[in-house]
Amino acid sequence: MDKLTLQNPVFAVYVVAATLMILKGVSMSWLTVARMIKVNGGFRSPEDVRKTPMNPNPSASQLAPNDDVDRIRRIQLNDLESLPYFLVSGLLYVLTDPSLALARWLLYGFVVSRLLHFLAYFTAQTHDLRATFWSVGSLILIFMTARTLVAALSS
Question: What is the CATH number of the domain that holds 92?
Fold first, then answer.
């Protein structure tokens, strides 16, 4: 069986996990915009405070940092620091032909850790809690990458 087809259950697990993470990452941009609209601020570029139908009463104060908007941006930056690694590491890990059970635990474990990290960050939980969820995902990435490296060196 070809490893990179949906007939391979390990690859199918990867596809589900990867698409969930891509959708989560993309949704952060939409959440940023929704927050900017809600608070009518947190804009970044000078042209954002020009009078338009979407911004009929522009103000320089709209360019001031906004904690609610910036929180979402920080979450998105954190995603951008880990999701690309997950997409590559997970795909390479599939090529090692791992057991389905282990692949599920690792790939879905990463997804759960990132969703919990998002919830902790979004609701302003302590750094310790966020770091715990981040660490779980990071350790999963390290394990999958190391396992892939060992498999490649052993072949």
Answer: 1.20.120.550
Distance of CA 130 to the CA centre of its chain: 14
pTM of the model: 0.90
Stretch 93-115: mean pLDDT: 97
Residue 1 belongs to some domain of the structure: no
Residue 127 Cα to chain centre, angstroms? 18
- Cα separation of 99 and 96, whole Å? 9
Residue 134 within a domain: yes
Query: Does any domain span residue 2?
Result: no
In the prediction, which pLDDT does 54 show? 87
Beta carbons within 8 Å of 20's beta carbon, 6+ residues apart: 111
Domain that holds residue 100: 9-154
Q: Is the pLDDT of residue 3 over 90?
A: no
Six token digits for residue 95: 């090529």
In 3-state terms, what secondary structure has residue 45? Answer: coil
Longest dimension (CA), the chain: 65
Count the domains in the chain: 1
